[in-house]
Amino acid sequence: MRTVEFKMERQGLVKEGDRVKIVEREGTSSYSYIIDPAVAMSGCFAARDRIKSEYGIVKEIRENSRGFYVIVDLDEE
What we know:
Layout: E1 2-8, E2 19-26, E3 31-36, E4 40-41, E5 55-64, E6 67-74
Antiparallel strand pairs: 1-4, 1-6, 2-3, 2-5, 3-4, 5-6
């Protein structure tokens, strides 16, 4: 199981337990991921750390002074 954190700008777009689609965006030297449809965005990943899963399950939603963070469990190592 792999866990990835995504930044979400507004509350209530997904909830714990939701199955979400992960879309890959290729940059010039790294990859980033979006919970479709544009719900939340990941940080940048090197090619060796790319996400292989197309779907994940929302494990937790955290809030702090910088916003909302969606923690997603992916079925990979």
